[in-house]
Amino acid sequence: MVKKDDFFRETTLRICGSLQIATALADVFDYFKRHFPIIGMRLSIKDDDLGAIRNIALVADNQREFPEEIVPLSKELWSEVQDWAPRVPHIFTADMDERFAALVKLESKAELVMPLWMDEKLCGVLTLRATRKEHFTKRLIELMTSISRPVTIALTNALAHERLKRTSELLAEDNRLMRKEYYLRAADEIIGQDGGMSHVMHMVRQVAPLNNTVLLLGETGTGKELIANAIHFSSAYKDGPFVKVNCGAIPEQLIDSELFGHEKGAFTGAVTAQRGRFERANHGTIFLDEVGELPLQAQIRLLRVLQTREIERVGGQRAIPVDIRVIAATHRNLEGMVLENRFREDLWFRLNVFPLIIPPLRQRKEDIPALIVHFIDKKAKEMGIRKRPAIAPGALEQLMRYNWPGNVRELENLVERELIIRHDASLVFDSLPNAPAGTRQPVAASEDADISGPLPLDDVLAAHIERVLARTKGKVSGSGGAAELLRVNPSTLRARMKKYNIRSKPSVM
Ligand SMILES: Nc1ncnc2c1ncn2[C@@H]1O[C@H](COP(=O)(O)OP(=O)(O)O)[C@@H](O)[C@H]1O
Ligand SMILES: [Mg+2]
Predict the structure, then answer these.
(1) What is the rounded CA–CA span in Å between residue 499 and residue 490?
(2) Is pLDDT above 70 for 402?
(3) CA of 288 relative to ligand 2 center, distance in Å
(4) Which of 122, 123, 79, 77 is nearest to 104 (CA)?
(5) Which of 67, 352, 391, 397 is the one with CA 20 to 30 A from 36?
(6) How close are the terminal C-alpha atoms of the chain, in Å?
(7) 246 plus 296 within the same structural domain
């Protein structure tokens, strides 16, 4: 028969032999089995945060790997267990008090549960399992009682280790999140995140990880596409495709096959089957840019896809399920269009789940200096200009006073134009339309911008022409030129521009 001292020493060495408590317990189990007919062992902690017993290590004859298990206890049982005296084993059998059924796993066998105390309270239990309760002899109980101290110490060490591990995992998670945030900051190069775009960026961070539809509202050139990108790349879909559709640029008769694809022979010219943009965006993000330009017929079909998350190719029979994040954008006042029956109300409701308004540049002028520097750096690099050109004194101030009807895009184009014109001299930005500012009132250029009071018609006209010119990158006549967009004769437009002292800028594209 094993001597008490030997048993104590051997068990202690084994239970403290590894910080992996499961390994240590398996070792102890092997040793116990040499002396007693037991068939399993379990080490559990009393988890006060959970109000439950957590089985952290189990070994049985032919099983070594158990997942951790949480055993919730009823309130009564919980308080009863708290009172279990230290080193007084409890024996349970199949005909025991059934309240303990959850706590012990009998399956018609017997268990001996030894309470483990630390700092004057119960911290866990060590359980032995046998086929019959007669195997729990007086001798075994005596030996079990003797080792309760080292087992408790091993258990608390394992817990401390676990807590430490969890803390460092939490830290690592924080770190990952921070880096993700950094990624959003650095890689996408959104200027003004701490300035005029801070509110938008806050919303972006909130909405990106959710998979809901986002509607980006803002004037042309404010950065809607950039924000759509940022949302995609910080979403769960970031490893999937980002597919952009310019809803205003697809001829009406092609919209269906562009968006949803077509089967071979669906219409004249459909010589092969083709996947549409929705299908290509599967498991990624589809960016429906200028969604306000969609003809009503296409709006109906888009709504159906948003409702069912299924598409049907033109000429196809089957519905193809798609798993897609939808981001839509428009510079239009969709609500107004709904009132005018130019945009379907039901589609607007679908899209308007999380509207995000990107303010025009004139409402966040504090971002202008950083944007100018950003674009100078970016364009200079693209153009192979090694030395960053300086900005002439006073130029920045003038840029700050300008109204920027074309928003960030206009500013970007201006910087590019300036770099082309100036080469290596300092940048003066005198090609700025409307400079010197102050001769005219600043004009809110968009249809839906809030205009505080009535403006002189000439101011509105001048601002509108400037805005259109910004959009056409200074192109006056010809296809895609400002005259065409404004539906006036180019010579009429030139006369107006002369009257309002608006310069036509050289097209840089
Ligand atoms: N906050 C910003 N920081 C850096 N670049 C910007 C920012 N906002 C817009 N841009 C740039 O300005 C241009 C126009 O932005 P874009 O996203 O296409 O506007 P929108 O889609 O609203 O018309 C793009 O080249 C974009 O990269
Ligand atoms: Mg755009």
Answers:
(1) 14
(2) yes
(3) 10
(4) 77
(5) 67
(6) 95
(7) yes
Residue ranges making up the domain that contains 220? 213-357
User: pTM, whole model, 2 decimals?
Assistant: 0.54
What atom in ligand 1 is closest to the CA of residue 228?
A: 17
Mutate which of 408, 411, 413, 446 to test ligand 1's pocket (most atoms within 8 Å of Cβ)?
408
pLDDT in tens, 215-231: 999 999 999 999 999 99
Q: Which uninterrupted H or E stretch holds 69?
A: strand 69-72
Question: How far is residue 177's CA from residue 169's CA, in Å, rounded to a whole number?
Answer: 12
Q: Is residue 90 part of a domain?
A: yes
Residues 237, 326: one domain? yes
User: Do 370 and 405 share a domain, yes or no?
Assistant: yes
In a domain? residue 432? no
The tokens of 105 are what? 């796993």
Cβ neighbors of 29 (< 8 A, separation 6 or more) are 38, 40, 41, 59
CATH of the domain at 467: 1.10.10.60
Residue type at 27 in one-letter notation: D
Distance CA(448)–CA(333), nearest Å, equals 7
The kind and range of the H/E element at 27 are helix 21-35
Write the CATH number for 68. Answer: 3.30.450.40
pLDDT at 120: 86
- The answer as to whether 88 is a domain residue is yes
**339 and 478 co-located in one domain:** no
Q: Which two tokens stand for residue 30?
A: 């092997």
Reading the block at residue 421, the tokens are 């014109």
